Amino acid sequence: xxxxxxxxxxxxxxxxxxxxxxxxxxxxxxxxxxxxxxxxxxxxxxxxxxxxxxxxxxxxxxxxxxxxxxxxxxxxxxxxxxxxxxxxxxxxxxxxxxxxxxxxxxxxxxxxxxxxxxxxxxxxxxxxxxxxxxxxxxxxxxxxxxxxxxxxxxxxxxxxxxxxxxxxxxxxxxxxxxxxxxxxxxxxxxxxxxxxxxxxxxxxxxxxxxxxxxxxxxxxxxxxxxxxxxxxxxxxxxxxxxxxxxxxxxxxxxxxxxxxxxxxxxxxxxxxxxxxxxxxxxxxxxxxxxxxxxxxxxxxxxxxxxx
Length: 307
Prior knowledge:
two-stranded antiparallel ribbon; single chain; seven-stranded parallel beta sheet; alpha/beta
């Protein structure tokens, strides 16, 4: 039973699979179209050299070996879990011909205990033949497509070098939903130049404009060796305090319909590569603060969703 005031991924997966399920992060060896010159170069200004795969244990190992190393590590804490969702996490995991996608995805779909697949990608990397293949997978096993949007504002998108616009995202969601594929949208709080009002509007727009089944809200981490360091040093980026972030997330949750599953409300980063905010390293403290603030308000997810 979900004891939170919002719809957690853990509770949602327990309803589907009647047990706790691991998400197993894997590195598929893909690149991004705004890194390799397909649409731009340099990548998103916030992105680390690992493409958001900083915690994958053995990113260069064969996929099956990655899988077994990850679950062995997870079993140290949860030894009885035997169902897994494979998660192609970092970079853009549909940025390749369908033949390559099929070769990589099929390897892990047949591994013992795999009951679902989560594929992180960009809205501009979903040609029709790819969506048809994803639909084929979805007919065999629960499939979640995680779309990195980050912001609905074109000026922010240009500043962080996303190299696609909001309409591209909306079109991608519509095409995926036409095939009954579940969509999880990723937004980042704290991007350069975005005010509290803009960050709240990002959530309002996404739930109003697109038929999504999940949402990830992420705190911006300023990492070493990223282009965003220049924004920080030149005063275009102000890192959020914990109190500001907790208030913002609780305000955002109030506008998210309760049927949308919250896949994430914060995140962490390797201590050796993060510049700030350092308070984000204590992820469970942040989540506990969000719980306490919702309880203090007497509030919950979706309380303002129809306003």
